[in-house]
Amino acid sequence: MIPYKHYGSDIIEDVVDEVIGADDPGTENYPCEATMKHWKWWMLHNEANINGQMRSMLHHLMDFDIKFLKSGESLLKELKERISPGWLSVVARFIYNSGGRIEPYPET
Questions:
Q1: Measured between alpha carbons, how far is 40 from 59 in angstroms, rounded to an integer?
Q2: Domain ranges of the chain
């Protein structure tokens, strides 16, 4: 589960990755279209926060060098490619277990 969310990370992930949408016939028991739009907005506005926290923790916990911290490559994008499905629960677990947090209503 993602804190502050009523649905599991698997459903949120499928919406964010556009695996499912409001027009899909199997989404009758899924959230409404406005909720799906909000999740996409939420992920878009938290992406920099997620990447920054992951970089910082990997640098601190695994002693990655400073070049890694300054890299412009997206760790979130890399995780999405390597761990799909399941990337969102991995990211959330990593951040929350390391003492970080993903903002439920990020500043825009």
A1: 28
A2: 9-23+30-97
Q: Among candidates 99, 89, 91, which has minimal Cα distance to 9? A: 89
Q: Are 93 and 17 in contact (CB under 8 A)?
A: no
- Cis amide prior to 3 (ω within 30 degrees): no
pTM over the 0.70 mark: yes
Whole-number pLDDT of residue 3: 62
What does the buried/exposed string (b/e) look like for 69-97 if buried means 16 or more CB atoms within 10 Å of the residue's CB? Answer: eeeeeebbeebbeeeeeebbbebbebbee
pLDDT at 1: 44
What the block records as the tokens of 20 is 């499912």
- Amino acid identity of 89? S
